[in-house]
TrEMBL record:
The gene is gmk. Its main location: cytoplasm. GO terms for cellular component: cytosol. This is Guanylate kinase. It comes from Schinkia azotoformans LMG 9581. Residues 6-184 form the Guanylate kinase-like domain.
């Protein structure tokens, strides 16, 4: 029997494109994906469990993880570190489960460097005008912030060539269908099947 390893899938794209919305909808449909648990130095919120919601670390522990290259990607937001532990990802895919990571573009570039076999999916809006409407629709950003996000989005969209797939988020359900098709197709790629099959032949 062919033993198949899991795959690390990374979803990223410009701010406001709807990454979180698509990820939530995707997980309602697909139970075979394991959402990647991040490490953080922020304090647990009420009801949060270590190893389930986050891996809670103190600052010294986290900085040691950075130093020892134990993170696929990391960043600092509002005085706290956040990152993806390498060991957790490797253990999960070795068990045969796919890992799904939703991060910003810069984080995805870090993953590409640290874990080249990851499959990177770039989520884009139907148009920049639609992206602008979505950001404004949040009702939380000033005109200046909206302009800054759009300028950043233009730069990030130019980085599309660093990704394996591009999915247009025109409708959430259709975007999910496209991502699910990518997940299935990746498992049937010749190079993935070939590695597992050759190991099976060696055993026999």
């Amino acid at each position: 029997m062919i033993e198949e390893k899991g795959i690390l899938f990374v979803l990223s794209g410009p701010s406001g494109v709807g990454k979180g919305t698509v990820r939530k909808a995707l997980f309602e449909n697909n139970i075979n994906l394991q959402y990647s648990i991040s490490a953080t130095t922020r304090n647990p919120r009420s009801g949060e469990i270590d190893g389930v919601d986050y891996f809670f670390k103190n600052r010294e522990e986290f900085e040691m993880m950075i130093k020892e290259n134990k993170l696929l990607e990391w960043a600092e937001f509002v005085g706290n570190y956040y990152g993806t532990p390498v060991d957790y990802v490797k253990e999960t895919i070795d068990s045969g489960r796919d890992v799904f990571l939703e991060i910003e573009v810069q984080g995805a570039m870090q993953v590409r460097k640290a874990f080249p076999e990851a499959v990177l999916i770039f989520l884009i809006p139907p148009s920049l005008e639609e992206l602008k409407n979505r950001i404004i629709g949040r009702g939380t950003e000033t005109e200046e912030i909206v302009k800054g996000r759009l300028d950043t989005a233009k730069v990030e969209i130019e980085m599309m060539s660093a990704y394996d797939y591009v999915v247009v988020n025109d409708q959430v359900d259709k975007a999910c269908e496209r991502i699910e098709a990518i997940v299935q197709a990746e498992h049937y790629r010749r190079d993935r099947v070939e590695i597992s099959y050759k190991k099976l032949l060696e055993v026999e």
